[in-house]
């Protein structure tokens, strides 16, 4: 990184969100940008999660960019290695390598109200940017619970997202802590080779069969020769999930049929009534993410597997003690305990216009206008922000919607011209968040009787979108300048507006009136009458 480097846009992260943002910027004619990545390669969560059995629970043809279809997916549900290879391919095909700044972890981002730019400190140097697009993602920083005695454990300890491939589990006594999406893939993958596997289950998940198969060479050839067939396949997968949304968001009682199917799935694999009782959830299906596996339940019935229907309470030497008092002697502990979702660490590193960090601004719960813009953080956007998650479909659909919003954000800056920034109005953020939370009240995620990682410390669901992907696409199609304050750098307004897009200077209807809300970048909100 060159000394005092300044770019038009800095993208943080190189997973689906970051790479998608980079592609969209290039398609908008913007090449003055960098992608800051803390690791040594692209891929995000699909780079970090390389545990045994790691795969996606969304069909391959739906879990990919619409602008970069892949006719050669080998299976209907792809494994981690295939998804990471796809992201490497996207990086190469769209010429993103020159924009990458690998091994460049963002340490701090500070808004400069005088210069209307973000000053960014990274592990490889400093730079500044007019606009920051944060695409760190909610599943990037593992969460390991603070278990008493863990520091004195003599064996091996690691999180599923930081798998230690140098440690051989064969013949070991292993504890798996957690029963989420990672754990149900890890358990059947390692069960045949370990001496004993003890599963510490705080809450059992609902598990449905995984209808996975190899995609034939004939199918792949057809998709290559006739691309519309792959588009049609994607469309069918999308449409089915759109039709399911109302059961999750408006009529949770309709999920009763799915719950009965899940119970039958368990009964076919688990004949022992005592074990089946341990594995049966006491909450409405869908309240937590429905998991897909054909191998999880059979693995739990094997002689070398113990299911402890209680959370891990403490560790005494090599002995793990559950909350119900049961114990297990183990050589290694694997935590499948999720991520910092509602308290993302990146929020502690972003300092906004009023000198507050984003974490401080979100102390009462995350909120962002249309899932992208936080009040008091001008020219800062997030991909996969608050209330943009999904419970039944592909996050790539939501990411692409936010990329549309980002593209129009950049266009609006170009139209306004000169050194300018857009700051989400607090009233607009509050209004958007109020409407989202009102819709959330009757969803299965809030009424299903569970405690999930969708909820923050205050019990608010700040993670999931309570509607269809079509609704979100409509809500993020264009940026409404009325929802933003326009900040200008001190000094006369430039006539030309250096660095603008080709359509700069062409006001859209209503923009003249909205410009009455413009304010100098170094004024506080109170001074500007906000």
From TrEMBL:
Its cofactor is FAD. It comes from the Bacteria. Pfam families: FMO-like (PF00743). Residues 499-518 have a biased composition (Basic and acidic residues). InterPro entries: FAD-bind_Monooxygenase_sf, FAD/NAD-bd_sf, Flavin_mOase-like. Keywords: FAD, Flavoprotein, Monooxygenase, NADP, Oxidoreductase. Gene3D superfamilies: FAD/NAD(P)-binding domain. GO terms for molecular function: flavin adenine dinucleotide binding; N,N-dimethylaniline monooxygenase activity; NADP binding. Residues 484-530 are annotated as: Disordered. Catalyzes a Baeyer-Villiger oxidation reaction, i.e. the insertion of an oxygen atom into a carbon-carbon bond adjacent to a carbonyl, which converts ketones to esters or lactones using NADPH and/or NADH as an electron donor. Thus, can convert bicyclo[3.2.0]hept-2-en-6-one into the oxidative lactone products 2-oxabicyclo[3.3.0]oct-6-en-3-one and 3-oxabicyclo[3.3.0]oct-6-en-2-one. Is also able to catalyze the sulfoxidation of methyl phenyl sulfide (thioanisole). Belongs to the FAD-binding monooxygenase family. This is Baeyer-Villiger monooxygenase.
């Amino acid at each position: 990184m060159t000394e005092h480097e300044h770019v038009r846009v800095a993208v943080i992260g190189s997973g689906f969100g970051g790479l998608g943002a980079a592609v969209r910027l290039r398609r908008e004619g913007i090449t003055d940008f960098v992608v800051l990545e803390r690791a040594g390669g692209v891929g995000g969560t699909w780079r970090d999660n390389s545990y045994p059995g790691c795969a996606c629970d969304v069909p391959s043809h739906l879990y990919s960019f619409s602008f970069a279809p892949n006719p050669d997916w080998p299976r209907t549900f792809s494994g981690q290695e295939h998804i990471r290879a796809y992201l490497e391919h996207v990086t190469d095909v769209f010429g993103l390598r020159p924009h990458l700044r690998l091994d460049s972890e963002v340490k701090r981002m500070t808004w400069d109200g005088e210069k209307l730019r973000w000053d960014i400190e990274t592990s490889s140097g400093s730079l500044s940017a007019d606009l920051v697009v944060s695409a760190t993602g909610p599943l990037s920083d593992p969460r390991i619970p603070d278990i008493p005695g863990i520091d004195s454990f003599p064996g091996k300890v690691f999180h599923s997202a930081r798998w230690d491939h140098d440690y051989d589990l064969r013949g070991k006594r292993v504890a798996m802590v957690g029963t989420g999406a990672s754990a149900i893939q890890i358990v059947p993958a390692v069960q045949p080779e370990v001496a004993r596997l003890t599963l510490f289950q705080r809450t059992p998940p609902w598990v449905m069969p995984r209808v996975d198969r190899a995609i034939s060479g004939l199918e792949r050839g057809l998709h290559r020769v006739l691309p519309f067939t792959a588009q049609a396949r994607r469309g069918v997968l999308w449409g089915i999930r759109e039709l399911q949304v109302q059961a999750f968001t408006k009529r949770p009682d309709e999920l009763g049929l799915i719950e009965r199917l899940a119970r039958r799935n368990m009964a076919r694999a688990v004949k022992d009534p005592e074990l089946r009782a341990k594995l049966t959830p006491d909450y409405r299906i869908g309240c937590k993410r429905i998991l897909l596996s054909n191998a999880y339940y059979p693995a739990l019935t094997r002689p070398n597997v113990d299911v402890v229907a209680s959370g891990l309470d403490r560790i005494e030497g090599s002995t793990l003690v559950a909350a119900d008092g049961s114990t297990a002697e183990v050589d290694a502990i694997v935590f499948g305990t999720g991520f910092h979702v509602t308290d993302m660490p990146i929020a502690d590193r972003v300092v906004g216009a009023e000198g507050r960090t984003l974490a401080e601004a979100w102390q009462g719960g995350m909120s962002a206008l249309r899932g992208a813009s936080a009040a008091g953080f001008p020219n800062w956007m997030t991909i996969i922000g608050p209330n943009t998650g999904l419970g039944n479909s592909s996050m790539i659909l939501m990411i692409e919607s936010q990329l549309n919003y980002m593209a129009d954000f950049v266009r609006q800056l170009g139209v306004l011209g000169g050194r300018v920034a857009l700051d989400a109005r607090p009233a607009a953020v509050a209004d958007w968040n109020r409407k989202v939370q009102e819709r959330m009240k009757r969803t299965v995620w809030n009424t299903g009787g569970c405690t999930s990682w969708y909820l923050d410390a205050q019990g608010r669901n700040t993670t999931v979108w309570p509607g269809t992907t079509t609704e979100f696409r409509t809500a993020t199609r264009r940026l409404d300048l009325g929802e933003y304050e326009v900040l200008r750098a001190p000094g006369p307004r430039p006539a030309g507006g250096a660095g603008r897009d080709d359509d700069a200077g062409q006001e859209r209807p209503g923009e003249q009136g909205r410009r009455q809300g413009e304010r100098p970048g170094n004024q506080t909100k109170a001074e500007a009458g906000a």
